[in-house]
Amino acid sequence: MKTWRTTLQSRKYLIRIYLVILFMIFLMTAILSTTVYYNVQKRMYDSVSANSSKIVNQMKYNLEYLDEMMRNLTISTYNNYDVRSLMYLNDNESFDDMNVINKLNASVIPSNAFLHSIYIYNNNNNKYYSTFGKFDHSDTGLDKLLEERKTLPILKPILRELEIREGDEPSSFIPVISYVMYELTDEEMKMDGAVILNFKLDWLLRNIQTLNGGDDSSNDKLWIMDDRKQFVKVGSPIGEEGLRLQDKLKETYAESVEDGASARTDIETQTLTIDGQKTLVSYIPIQNTGWVLFKTVPYQTAYDVIHSLRASILVIAVIILAFSLLLSAQISRGLYRPVRNLLHQVQSRNGQSTGRAGDEFSFLQAAYAESDEQLVKYRQEQNSNSQIMKHYALRKWLMNSDLTTEDELALVEGFDANEPFAVCVLKIDNQKSFVEAHTPKERDTLHFAVTNTTLEWIGELFKAEAVEMKSDHLVIIVNLTPGPVQENMERLAEQIGKSQHYLRSTYKLSLSASIGKAAPDWRGLTGAYEQALDQMAYRFVHGKQALITPLIAYRKQGGVELDEVLDLANPFVERLKRGDAAGAEAKLGELLKQVRKLEYSEMMLALMHLVNRLKDAMYEINQKRSRPVNFNAALTSGEWFELETLEEFQERIVKFLRDIPEDETNAGNPQNAMTTETIKRIIETNYMDSELGVPMIAEMLKLSSYKVGKVFKENAQMTIPEYINHTRMVKAVEWMGNSKLSIGEIMLKVGIENESHFYKVFKAKYGTTPRDYMAKRMLEE
């Protein structure tokens, strides 16, 4: 009883194929999935980086544009005459001085939506005159900034907080950007006089908050760092994580400054790692401000799509692997099928299971060793004295059974000499190719396979012995007992057919068999053998892998006589002479169809007659060709009658016909082509001359009539008289359509004097008489 371990052991090769295919599919899936994943990841990285660069560039452009606008407004205000008079005022303020502020409130402030207020600093009075609040405004935030910086940068944005007081309410602060313009400072580094413009910062904060998406907890943000390394505060507090990110940004930019990156005008992109989390950073300095613009995108945010894609890829990979289990099984079975078939064939012959010998190849190796051992044993038996005598007796039975003695009969054990016998002749098809393709040792092995296989199949029903009579055929002697003779003959034919099929599928060996008429006892073996040999000749008709019985061999398909078949060679040859290769090939098929109905000896006579007629036809054709066909080697070779089947004979003839090159006498001879064109022009010019004909044209060309006619027919595919009639009829039809001449007048116009001849030629070409043709034309008009 088979166990699962035995089953696995007997299918090792199948399992290996399955595992290799599964591994290859898994490897390809893994490689493709990884390639897709990392390719999409790179594309996503490039996309996020490009998007960040786009935002940073747009914001940089806006800030630089606004910086330029604010600087210009500051300069124009500083250069205002009224502003400068107030800036350097030494006396107490008058109403006119206050009016300067009123004018600024009425004109400059409303005209600039981003402008919050204007300060005019007077160093003489140490006062700030302001458009916001009181006339002499006190800005504690600005004072604090001056204490910290001592001097303020000229025409550069200063991020600060502006104090706002409303009555008794507590002070509040709003973020602004201040631009300062002054020329000189005193000994205490105070500005001698200055204009300070305060621009609202809320538009910038709203813009940044919009770009940041309003999510203060995320680090997917746009950041602005001023010249003091302070970040613009946007929204609610950013928390510890945001502060660490800001510190990292400062550190990164400081390192880039050391490397000279701050002088660049293009965007830098880097990947930062903070607390184990990666963040993509794009940054660029803003010209003339000392500010730096940063855009940060956490990897987690940037690659959410990648992560979801990775999950999808994993799901797809799992599905593919599940499918590959089934696919691998199907492919493995397909690849394993030849091995399985061979195993089944070997197992069916020796009755063993694969598991006894290990895996499949171990089993086949063991089976081969056993077969080789049997072959050696068979050769030893063949060479043994007893076997030599036994084969001698069998050959004598076949060659001359009447002279066989009782002692010789006793050499063949198991046969009942007084019961019916049958003789089967076996021949390997394509014998010549078989000998050329195999070494003597290989041929011996295959002969043994044929003998052993055939005896095994026949041995299931009858006692049989095999003997090699010649190198080209094997004879099987079968003792037809027990049962009716006719029924046993049918069963024998069935078993031989099975052996032919087995040898074909297993060894790729085509084998034809012939079974002679049953002999009543051992005395009739010679006649049965001779009949089987005669029948084998009909393989020529029935083809290879044939199984020929007396009924098949001698069955007539119709009462066909040899003379009738020989006459069919005439139309074949005629078409060949005319150069009609297709017609000749068709007539050859008709001829060989009738040849099949003849007796074998008559077949050979008919084919010999066909080859001789073909040789004569080719000799005659070569007399007219400029380049003769060398047919001697092709048609006189004895290989024609060494062919094993009529189909091969037909294929050889057809190949010969198709290999005949076209005659280039005319097509390749410019002189003949020119002569033909000249003849056509002569006819088309002189068609009205009733004397026009071959002699007249030959005299004009100074050539013989034979030469003129031959050249024209070979080139124009018609004779000169035919072309003259063709030209005259074409011209006659033209006269009928373009004139009112009578038929008699038209006839003379085209060079024909005999009316009956004109009517005959016209009807042959147009299928109707000239009179009916003209009547039809008149009705149509």
Description:
- With 781 residues, the chain is an alpha+beta fold.
- It has 32 helices and 15 strands.
- The strands form three sheets. It has a six-stranded antiparallel beta sheet with strand order 3-2-1-6-5-4, with helices on both faces.
- A hairpin with a 2-residue loop joins strand 8 (268-274) and strand 9.
- Helix 21 (569-577) runs antiparallel to helix 22, helix 22 packs antiparallel against helix 25 and helix 27 crosses helix 28 (705-716).
- It is elongated and about 160 Å long.
Sequence-ordered SSE layout with sheet pairings:
Blueprint: H1 4-10, H2 12-78, H3 81-87, H4 95-106, H5 108-111, E1 115-122, E2 127-130, E3 136-137, H6 140-149, E4 158-164, E5 172-182, E6 193-200, H7 202-211, E7 221-225, H8 239-258, E8 268-274, E9 277-286, E10 291-298, H9 299-302, H10 304-350, H11 360-383, H12 385-400, H13 406-410, E11 421-428, H14 431-437, H15 440-459, E12 463-470, E13 473-479, H16 485-507, E14 511-515, H17 525-536, H18 539-542, E15 547-548, H19 550-553, H20 562-567, H21 569-577, H22 581-595, H23 600-622, H24 632-635, H25 646-658, H26 670-686, H27 694-701, H28 705-716, H29 720-738, H30 743-749, H31 755-766, H32 770-780
Parallel strand pairs: 14-15
Antiparallel strand pairs: 1-2, 1-6, 2-3, 4-5, 5-6, 7-10, 8-9, 9-10, 11-13, 11-14, 12-13
Helix pairs in contact: 2-10, 10-11, 12-17, 15-16, 21-22, 21-23, 22-25, 26-28, 26-29, 27-28
